[in-house]
Amino acid sequence: MTDTLHTKLSCGLECAVQPLPDRHVVAFQIRVLGGTCGEPEAKLGLARIVTETLDKGTARHTGPELLDAFDSLGAHHRAGTGRETATFTCTVLPEHFEPAVALHAEMLRTPTFPADAFEVNVELARQELLALQDDPQGLVDKYLNAQAFGPVLGRHALGERDTLDRLTRDDVVEFWQTHFQAGRMLVAVAGAIEPQHALALLEEHFAGFGTAQQDARLPVAFGFGAETRHYPKDLEQEQLGLCWPGVAVTDPDFPVQQVTLGVLSGGMSARLFTEVREKQGLVYWVGAWQETPRGAGLIFLGASTRPERCDRTYATLLAEVDRLGKDLTEEELQRAITGLVAAQDTRGDTTRARCAELGSDLFYYGHPVSREKKLAWVRVVTRADVERYLAGHPRDRLSVVTLGPRALGAD
User: Fold this and answer.
1) What's the total number of domains in the chain?
2) Please, what is the average pLDDT of the chain?
3) In the structure, what pLDDT confidence band is assigned to residue 183 with cuts at 50, 70 and 90?
4) Measured between alpha carbons, how far is 274 from 278 in angstroms, rounded to an integer?
5) CATH number for the domain including 70?
6) Distance (Å, rounded) from C-alpha 141 to C-alpha 298?
7) Were both Cys, which of 141, 241, 370, 403 would link to 1 (CB 3.0–4.6 Å)?
């Protein structure tokens, strides 16, 4: 990525700017190193409440005034809370980049956290937790992540009802003061902009924001939770989720892991869909994916099936993973590789996606990595690599969750 400028500004921001002169917009992403893993154990859900309340008022604008200011720029902006970061993204026309950055700096630096907005957002979180009870797949994800990732990385962004009830506005202010500082922020910019100009504007608007030298990019340690649990629920379908340790994004075998998942679940010709759904008719849906906090990675399989078919579905999912290490064809391998490359050249080539990829590079690698290099890593994966990867990362330690009327192995 020779045309990407990467530096740490004197204000403390770590920034990367990728000029894309043929584009008509500019996208930027701000990652604050302070997600759910930074919450006090008794105050789960706090990080999300902070993120959701930041735009409800600043030292200069009320909440509605701030939203009007964004709308006047035609800015497409959003915020989200993850395990390790709070992320703010924005896409604007090039001539509106500076005012959009200024509004984000105002929102991040001078929030007022109005008491009424805080109360509303806590109540909304309570309602979302209640609605989650009617989302079986969402519930399985919540239970499985908590079990597999443990009590810190496995936290759900919504928290729990009792922890939400303990939150105060003072907790919100304290979390913001602790985590929202320039020295804990990663900024990626991509699009029709000159890099030095972008960096100068970021320096100007974030100068003096907290401690410039603070850095919190060390991975959060976790111990994989190998356990099988059933959650009874009156459902017509049984929800099944399982996972086991894989590799981190920065591991040399990560491209092999990507290709392996592509073979398993990379489209309607992938193994899980054809073998488990189309040929055997066991499931309503089936899929495989990965989750990758810094320094770690887990491989997930999920399915929805009839309760009486749960045991057979579970055994078939594992059998398909085991079989992959024995009879993978060159055609399957190349189809998976082509799918990954095509996804980058289509869905991954929007300005917003380029910016997000650049932000992920800063988060995981600590520096930009060219997409050409990452695609080259994928293109050279061989069947022998996949077989070696599967042998080196066996699914002998499993975290399993079922949700529905019947537990695995029940008579």
Assistant:
1) 2
2) 94
3) very high
4) 5
5) 3.30.830.10
6) 13
7) 370
